[in-house]
Every structure is written in structure tokens, then in C-alpha cells.
Amino acid sequence: MEVLRNDRTRDGFNRLHGKYLKRCLEVLPHSLATLDVSRLTIAFFAISGLDLLDCLHLIEPQKRDIIEWIYSLQILVTKNNESGGHCGRHGFRGSAANGMDNPYDCGNLAMTYCALSSLLILGDDLKRVDKKKIIDGLKEHQLSDGSFVPVVYEKENDMRFVYCATTVSYILNDWSAIDRQKIVSFIRNSFTYECGFGQSPGLESHGGSTYCALAALTLMGELSQLSDKQLSSLKRWCLFRQTNGFQGRPNKDADTCYSFWLGGALKLINGYHLVNTELNTSFILDTQDMITGGLAKYPDSIPDPMHTYLGLSGLALNSINNCLLTVNPALNISERAVKHLIQLHSQWNDN
Ligand SMILES: [Zn+2]
């Protein structure tokens, strides 16, 4: 299906949403003020969205400043200012909004994932990332059941942070600090009677946690830990989430972000060809704001950076939508950025 609507050209589609995402890097409405502490996630949605739209040239003049800003959020704990004596504080903070260098100024796994992905997309060589400390710090984020907490003093462990820990290990090409077998058993224990994955064992199946579980297994090279029967019932559960777009759980309304979470999950288990892409594309395009640009959670509602990005990456799973770069379903960044990562890995291996 043709991705564009209302006689807009491919350039018009890319320019409309490119301008929206560029604006997200500059100024945000007060309705998003609560996201100030996790501003790095908004930056990731904007930067990766601009990449998928092949519009990174729109931020070329600001690129160096954005890279410097991301590095300013890296927490480099030295012996003199280390508080609590553990290395789990290493990583990236979401912004400077909560103050810096206080005992609660800790690296957050989700922010570290967003920082590393954004740096890669911007073409950075990750030379200033303190890889060893971040990897060593992952040890303190992993719990005895195999799951991870986002920051060392919190108890919010679930599948989202399992995904973040595996992406950080994959990007930094170092799996030495985490217990992969424990991760595999946490994921297997979170498989539900409905035949999707929950956020933790005993919880209901959910589109987001199903994506995180399958992407983490893929990045670890452990997808074969699932039986053929589990894979085929997973495909069925994911496919049954499609109404026109995708819903996250049974009996919920379709929501733009699940076009990526469930579409990406289906890509990882070779089930995407069974998606009705025409209906899904139509749903996503109905959530566009044709004046301001951006995509919303539902049609006729207000766009936000997360749904704009995940709507675009949901469209980018379908190779027919040629106004977008191809997205890597496990890392959720463009294949172009993944190619840059593979080049960095081979340079690190040579040194
Ligand atoms: Zn959503």
C-alpha cells in the first residue's frame, strides 16, 4: 500500500514528520514537562525517527552539540566522588533535571540504552563511553531471578530492563558481566498460559513485554530456547492482537506503538508476512497530525514523540514503505546505524 495520503509526496511526508521531530529536540509543550527527567528518551525518539525518515541532515548543524550533551549525561564515578562504593552507578542519567553528583544521581539502564543508540545513529565512535565501567555496573542491576532493575536503588524489575541490559551488552560487545542463563530462565518463566510474555512471571501477556523478551533472546542468540510449539502459539497470540492497528492486550483499543512492539515481535519469529499491512498502515496514517506533524496514540488525538517514533518504526518494518529506512527489529534502530555498529565492533576486535 502507498504510505502517503492526501496527495503529499514522499518528501512532504518526510518533511512534515521530520520538522515535528526536530522541534522535539528544541522545545516541548508544557504537557510533556514531567518527562524532563528522562529527556534522553525523547532525544532518542527524535534522533532515531529523523534517521528512519532519512532526515538527519535537518539536525546536521546541531549534531556536535547533541553528541556533547549526551556525553554530559554520562556518569563517570571516580574514587573521590563515589558514593556507596558500588559500580552500579555508572551509565547515563536521563537529564540534569534532578541535579548531578548527588547520591541519587545514578546511571539508568533505559537511559544508557537510549544514549548508546542515539550516539550510534549520529555516527559517533563511542570512544568516550566508559565501556568497562558500564559493563561492570550491569552486574549490580541483575537480580537473582535473572531480571534487572533500571537503577541500583530501585526495585522495579521487569522485562523492559532485561531488554535494555541485553542491548547495552550487545552494543558494547561485551557479555561478561551478566548471567545469560538466568536471563533465559526469567524469560521462559514469564511465558504465560495465553502464549505471550508478561513483564514478570505470573503476569498477563503484554505486547511490550513480548517484544522485549523476544528481542532479548534474539540479541543473546538464544531464540532457539523456545520450542516450535511455543513459537507457533506466540505467532498466533501476536497476530490476534491486530484489529486494524495492533492492541497491546486482548480487548484493548489499537494503539500506534504496538504496530512496532507486536510487528517487531512477529519479525523476530518470522511471522510478519501474516500481518495485514494495509490495515496497519492505514491505522498509523490516521493518527498523523497533518498540520503540526507527528503521530498520536489514537486517531484524532495529540501527537507525542514516543508514538511518532514507534509509528514510524512500525511502518519501517514493512519494506514496501520505501519512504523510510529499514529498521532492525531487535535493536529498534535503522539497519544503517547497525552497519555502523558492526564496523565499530570489528575495529574494537582489531585493537
Ligand atoms: Zn502506546
From TrEMBL:
Keywords of the record: Magnesium, Metal-binding, Prenyltransferase, Repeat, Transferase, Zinc
All copies of domain Prenyltransferase alpha-alpha toroid, residue ranges: 16-333
CDD domains listed in its UniProt record: GGTase-I
Catalytic activity: geranylgeranyl diphosphate + L-cysteinyl-[protein] = S-geranylgeranyl-L-cysteinyl-[protein] + diphosphate
InterPro entries according to UniProt: GGTase_I_beta, PGGT1B-like, Prenyltrans, Terpenoid_cyclase/PrenylTrfase
GO CC, one annotated term: CAAX-protein geranylgeranyltransferase complex
Cofactor: Mg(2+); Zn(2+)
First-tier enzyme category under EC: transferase
Enzyme nomenclature, EC number: 2.5.1.59
Short name of one Pfam family: Prenyltrans
GO molecular function, one term: metal ion binding
PANTHER family linked to this entry: GERANYLGERANYL TRANSFERASE TYPE BETA SUBUNIT, GERANYLGERANYL TRANSFERASE TYPE-1 SUBUNIT BETA
Quaternary structure (record): Heterodimer of FNTA and PGGT1B. PGGT1B mediates interaction with substrate peptides.
Family of this protein: Belongs to the protein prenyltransferase subunit beta family.
Record protein name field: Geranylgeranyl transferase type-1 subunit beta
Source species taxonomy: Eukaryota, Metazoa, Ecdysozoa, Arthropoda, Chelicerata
